[in-house]
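pinging the channel bc i need a second pair of eyes. not urgent but kinda urgent?? the chain im working w is below, pasted from the shared doc
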Amino acid sequence: MAGLQTEAVDRVSGQLVEVVAPLKIRSDELARQSRLDDAEAECLYAIVHQHILKKDWRAALNLLRALLGTRPTHLKYLKALAFLHRELGNFRQAIDTYRLLDVLDPFRPEYSLSMVQCFLQVKSWQAAEDLLEEVIHFCETTVSHPESLERARAMRHILRSDDDATGQSR
């Protein structure tokens, strides 16, 4: 069991390096080209937020990418990026962004639960179920995040009920 966990950690770590490395290179280039102070960044984010409220996902995404170029690890901006990717149906990009959020802000099962929803959208049933098991285990062993634990259990139940209803495993 420990060997499987070690392999999973190694696999995820390798995937994260693949996700983070291009972001880091790109962010360094953009940071050299444009400098925004915190107030300017927040003003730009307010414009992004207005586009989100109007459901103008593409305009919001374009501005947010520029903003993330100067602040590639800002949690609020990354959360917005993941949200926009989900709304646009870019589920793989959303998964990658949630993985990055999970690395930058660990112990937040809501990122994993959002990833599960994306896995379900791309029909990665096993990945969804495996991640749900991890969330449930984390919440049970840390005795924290009762809402996330309840949500993960409900999602697992629905996923398993679908398997039972079709008489097959995905």
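so The chain has two domains: 1-106, 109-170. and Helices lie at 2-33, 38-53, 57-70, 75-87, 91-104, 109-121, 125-142, 146-166. — does that match what u expected or am i reading it wrong
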